[in-house]
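During the no-cost extension, the postdoctoral fellow (Dr. R.K.) reprocessed legacy sequence entries with the updated structure-token encoder. One reprocessed record is reproduced below for audit purposes.
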Amino acid sequence: MLEVKLEAERKPDEISGALIVPMFKGEEKAEPAVELKGDLEAVVGRVSGHEFKAELEEVYSIPIEAAPDRLILAGLGEKKELDLDCLRRAYGKAALKADELELESVNAVIPKIDKPVHEVVQAIVEGAILALYRFERYKSEKKERKLRELKIFTKINEETKKAVEAAIKICEGVKVARDIANTPSSDCTPEKFAEMAVAAVKNLGIRYRVYGMKELQEMGMGGIVNVGRGSRHEPKLIELEYDGGGDLYVAAGKAVTFDSGGISIKPHEKLHEMKFDKSGGAAVVGILVAAALLKLPVRLIGLIPVVENMPSGSAYKPGDIIRFRNGKTAEIISTDAEGRLILADALAYAAEKKPRALIDLATLTGACVIALGNHASGLFSNNDELAEKLIKSGEETGERVWRLPLWKPYYNQLKSEVADMKNTGGSAGGAITAAAFLSNFVGDNAWAHLDIAGTAWTQEQSEQKSYIPKGATGVGVRLVINFLMKEGKKKN
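Re-encoded structure tokens follow.
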């Protein structure tokens, strides 16, 4: 991983080596976001507004015969639109440019903007580290990253030091989530998913337990058991627990290692993407890793139901009725609405623990992609305060969420003549009725559901961001950790 060092503030012309210079887009020419004088100002002026316009993520490399010996101009876009995500994107792109130039080390100065310095530093580090991520496990020829070091010239104090440390640890959690989600189902069956999760957490002081088929049956986990019985790979429920003191929070994540749709089989188009249907569970592993590395002052339990949804002679079928852990029943209309069935058991189990907040993450519905595209995750909640906190964390991390309603008419779509509810309410409002289904299993706990079907991996309409390579995004890790960090601070 990229080594990040803080260096005392210096003027740009006092820094040797390659230097990342942030630039704003102007009406006529790009404007430096730091003070440049003399030769540096003249060099930048020659390309500003011509070869380089400082569009967001635009980069331009200029070798010069002075200190620094190379400038990497990094476009921030328009100043009025600047947010922390612009910084991640701009410095992420600059890091990729430095790596492309085969530089082993690059320096960065931070823009003079009206934002806390430590937040700026954290965003820069996140952007650079995450942009350099690659998933090359299955490539016969692996291209080694050349860039090994990033030096940031800024104020050195406890806040900026902690910002760098936090960014590195959070990015480790994102990397774990991306690695698991990117792994094909051939190498990530429910059993292997559990092995990967345990390997990620076992040296971090996190307690873990993996429940198998017999235990799940004894626990009344009818949703997990029935969805999982169509595959020759038995279902699992993974329970991870980090104890940093303080209030208890639970994160639950859907992990379908491959979703064929079951008996209600999916069409072949983009079926290969269904290896990403485990992204919610992968995010929960990443969240636990980051929380432990950060030593957050909270108790955190991660619950991950893991299944492979396959058609077979033993698979569950449309028309079946399933009983869940909390005693409620559901009539199965479609076996391709399986994620809510396995989450139902996990949420019911979590509700018994009476957490301060219960958050689930799931690639749950194509309907959410239709509603929000690939630019935001759907947010559903029974608690306004929790919802507002997650919305704010989404804005700060660039993992935006948009809240959708849970009104009574949507619940009416789930009414069944033979069970407590149906597992689908039809195509109209599909993301909402799926969330309404889940709400039956959370008790009176503060709960939020994040439908990440449109954001868990890069898709055709996904916005290209430098720090999100193609494949799994690891969405949800930075969002939930941001939320938990604030919750932990309130208690200290």
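The CA atoms of residues 173 and 289 lie 5 Å apart. The radius of gyration is 24 Å. The remaining legacy entries will be reprocessed before the final report is submitted.
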